[in-house]
Write a structure and sequence with these properties.
With 303 residues, the protein is α+β, with helices and mostly antiparallel strands. The chain has 2 domains: 22-135; 169-301, Nucleoside Triphosphate Pyrophosphohydrolase (Alpha-Beta Complex), CATH 3.90.79.10. Helices cover 23% and strands 28% of the residues. It contains 7 helices and 14 strands. It has helices at residues 22-30, 93-97, 108-111, 117-135, 208-220, 269-276, 291-301, and strands spanning 35-40, 43-47, 72-77, 80-86, 103-105, 146-149, 154-157, 163-164, 169-178, 181-186, 198-201, 224-235, 240-249, 263-268. The strands form 3 sheets. Strands 9, 10, 11, 12, 13 and 14 form a 6-stranded mixed beta sheet that branches. A 5-stranded mixed beta sheet has the order 3-4-1-2-5, covered by helices on one side. The chain has a 3-stranded antiparallel beta sheet with strand order 6-7-8, with no helix packed on it. A hairpin with a 4-residue loop joins strand 12 and strand 13. Helix 6 (269-276) crosses helix 7 (291-301). The protein is globular. Bound molecules: zinc ion. Zinc ion binds at residues 139, 141-142, 144, 157, 159-160, 162. Residues 139, 141-142, 144, 157, 159-160, 162 line the site of zinc ion.
């Protein structure tokens, strides 16, 4: 597959060498070509009626807001700077911004599969960066107030000068395979017949391979040998990086951890292929924008 998973491939240049220059940032904010993406309670603004493509605005849209919002820089495309603007303080954002006829705010997970690919990547960046600003108004080191610097790519503590950077939480997710079968699991509360690749957070002091082996044996009792990295995906809910692997099982007997999973079992390649193609059958797999779908498709299509 040539294209990466959803939420990757933002077309914006992050200009990390320019955003540290306050004068450059000021010029971009004052430039009438500059585009601003309103984000309300982590939902991006999208154009009506389709509610798929991002709806960019000029700064005039925010001029009457009190207190004035603090834009965060997403990047530059074709010489035009693009910022995200957190408007979460508004109660009825479409009405208060005067955009009800042309735009709305949409939950990213709900629209991800229908967004233009570049827009999904930009929205993922905006969602994670705005969320990080909201959660880091105080310094983790001393509790003092922090201030945004370098277009929001960093926050510094006003009291102790500590520098803070946006954090990403790595998650390993693996298609555990043995011959023509793949191990999938399901959690409680999932839609009927839905199974997915096993996943879990990487812990401190752990390699990707060690995390895959630990998660799989903890959740399913299956011992994994070789682990091969395949692809990664930003997962902006709020700020994870999904690290997709193909893991070779060395054992076959499944012992489900009932705390982690409701069920885990082996599925034949043909059953998974049919589920990926949308056939109604014994198995439902995660949607096409998820890396689980991408992993399973890659394995099914591999020689
Ligand atoms: Zn501090």
């Amino acid at each position: 597959m040539a294209d990466g998973p959803a939420f990757s491939g933002s077309p914006l240049d992050r200009v990390s060498h320019k955003r540290t220059d306050p004068a450059w940032l000021e010029r971009q904010l004052a430039d009438e070509k500059t585009r601003f993406l309103p984000v309300w309670r982590l939902e991006p603004m999208v154009k009506l009626p389709a509610a798929q493509a991002l709806a960019w605005a000029k700064w005039v849209l925010f001029e009457d807001l009190d207190p004035p919002p603090e834009p965060v820089l997403l990047g530059v495309a074709d010489g035009v700077a693009h910022f995200a603007v957190d408007v979460s303080a508004l109660e009825k954002p479409e009405v208060e911004l005067g955009v009800s006829d042309v735009a709305c705010f949409a939950e990213l997970r709900a629209i991800a599969s229908s967004m233009p690919p570049g827009d999904a990547g930009i929205a993922a960046h905006a969602r994670s960066l705005v969320d990080w600003q909201q959660r880091n108004r105080h310094c983790p080191a001393c509790g003092g107030r922090t201030r945004q610097v370098f277009g929001g790519s960093q926050r510094n503590c006003i009291d102790c000068s500590a520098e803070h950077f946006p954090r990403t939480s790595p998650v390993v997710i693996s298609a555990v395979v043995r011959g023509d079968r793949c191990l999938l699991g399901r959690s409680r509360g999932w839609p009927a017949r839905m199974y997915s690749a096993l996943a879990g957070y990487l812990e401190p002091g752990e390699t990707i391979e060690e995390a895959v082996r630990r998660e799989v044996v903890e959740e399913s009792g299956i011992v994994v040998g070789d682990v091969r990295y395949l692809a990664s995906q930003p997962w902006p809910f709020p700020s994870s990086l999904m690290i997709g692997c193909i893991a070779a099982a060395e054992t076959e007997s499944v012992v489900v951890d009932p705390v982690e999973l409701e069920d885990a079992r082996w599925f034949d390649r043909n059953v998974i292929r049919a589920a990926l193609d949308g056939a109604a059958g014994e198995l439902v797999v995660p949607p096409s924008f998820s890396i689980a779908h991408y992993l399973l498709r890659s394995w099914v299509d591999s020689p």
